[in-house]
């Protein structure tokens, strides 16, 4: 269940508490106002034996419905500013800082410049769409955008903050316990807006350390020259627009390829086309010749000719890392 029904972090819970307080007060006020109208309409209506009369002035009532709402507004304003101070306190007690870059239509995450996230080429771990955090620890998120205004909305953990081109904004989140928490861009940003999703995975210390080591090891595979070239080709050609590779691309047309080398079904569902290097080369080279009617076309280079063998092999070498 989403916030405010089920807040899963201290920030979301603080906001939810104020939400329910205001909501409860609004319901009480509504009940009093509507109840008074109904009672007055029934009791003082004109009917046989009773003539309706106009009443003017009641100092006690006028004082009550002036003072009480004023006190409510002042109280809620004070409580709201207290919550805003908590929302905007992004630095104190933060265990780590993650940079989140919004781009049509994906969130890219840059983990801290910490030795634990350092890759063999000297850069640091990056990911897309899915962010891993340690449970029970405050995480600062620095937001930016490369194109239009996006909004990082993670309701169960920490509310919403805009990512604005040319401006630096920040927010913080914290998960009470391990689990998977979903969010999305909450600012309409183009035709792919609905697919600009966010997944945050909170893990206990042992699981987080294990994921950290595995993620760095997997990312280092991409530093192999052949694999790095294949990854670059995969993301720059039409592959990225059709296929999802978690942490890298978010295509929705073709099947997900995140764990293609572990799948038991044959490539494209074609009998005899098991997942191996030779068959992947056949498929990437000319998918329609292996499965007539498939939506996957024969790709061409910038000059309009077929992809050369080296390009196809590089793409396949990248796919072979997806286990």
Structural notes for this entry:
The strands form 3 sheets. A 5-stranded mixed β-sheet has the order 3-2-1-5-8. It has helices spanning 10-43, 59-88, 205-221, 225-236, 239-242, 277-285, 287-290, 309-319; strands at residues 94-103, 106-110, 126-128, 130-134, 138-145, 150-154, 159-163, 169-173, 179-185, 197-203, 244-245, 249-250. By secondary structure, it is α+β, with helices and mostly antiparallel strands. It folds into 3 domains: 10-88, Helix Hairpins (Orthogonal Bundle), CATH 1.10.287; 94-221, Cupredoxins -  blue copper proteins (Immunoglobulin-like); 225-319, Sandwich (Immunoglobulin-like), CATH 2.60.40.420. The model has no long low-confidence stretch (mean pLDDT 89). The chain is elongated and about 95 Å long. Helices cover 37% and strands 20% of the residues. It contains 8 helices and 12 strands.
Q: Counting H and I runs of at least 4 residues, what is the number of helices?
A: 8
**End-to-end distance:** 32 Å
Structural class determined from secondary elements = alpha+beta
Helicity range: 25-40%
Give the strand line-up of the largest sheet.
3-2-1-5-8
Question: Total strand count, please?
Answer: 12
- CATH architectural category of the largest domain: Sandwich
Tally the structural domains: 3
Name the average pLDDT: 89
- Radius of gyration, whole Å: 28 Å
Poorly predicted ranges: none
């Amino acid at each position: 269940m989403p916030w405010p029904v089920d807040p899963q972090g201290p920030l979301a819970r603080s906001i939810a508490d104020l939400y329910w307080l205001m909501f409860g007060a609004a319901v009480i006020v509504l009940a009093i106002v509507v109840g008074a109208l109904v009672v007055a309409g029934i009791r003082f209506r004109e009917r046989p034996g009773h003539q309706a009369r106009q009443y003017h002035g009641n100092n006690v009532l006028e004082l009550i419905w002036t003072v009480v709402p004023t006190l409510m507004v002042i109280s809620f304003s004070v409580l709201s500013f207290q919550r805003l101070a908590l929302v905007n306190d992004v630095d104190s007690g933060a265990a780590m800082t993650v940079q989140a870059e919004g781009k049509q239509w994906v969130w890219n995450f840059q983990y801290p410049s910490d030795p634990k996230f350092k890759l063999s080429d000297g850069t640091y771990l990056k990911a897309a769409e899915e962010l891993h955090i340690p449970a029970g620890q405050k995480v600062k998120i620095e937001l930016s955008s490369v194109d239009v205004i996006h909004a990082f909305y993670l309701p169960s953990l920490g509310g919403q903050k805009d990512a604005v081109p040319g401006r630096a904004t920040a927010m913080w989140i914290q998960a009470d316990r391990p689990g998977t928490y979903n969010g999305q861009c909450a600012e309409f940003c183009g035709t792919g807006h609905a697919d600009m999703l966010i997944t945050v995975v909170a893990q206990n210390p042992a699981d987080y350390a294990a994921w950290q080591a595995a993620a760095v090891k997997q990312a280092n595979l991409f530093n192999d020259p052949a694999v790095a070239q294949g990854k670059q080709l995969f993301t720059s050609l039409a592959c990225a627009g059709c296929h999802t590779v978690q942490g890298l691309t978010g295509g929705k047309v073709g099947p997900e390829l995140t764990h293609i080398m572990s799948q038991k079904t044959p490539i494209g569902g074609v009998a005899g086309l098991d997942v191996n290097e030779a068959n992947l080369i056949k498929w990437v080279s000319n998918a329609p010749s292996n499965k007539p009617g498939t939506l996957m076309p024969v790709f061409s280079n910038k000059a309009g000719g077929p992809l050369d063998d080296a390009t196809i092999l590089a793409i396949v070498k990248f796919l072979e890392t997806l286990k």
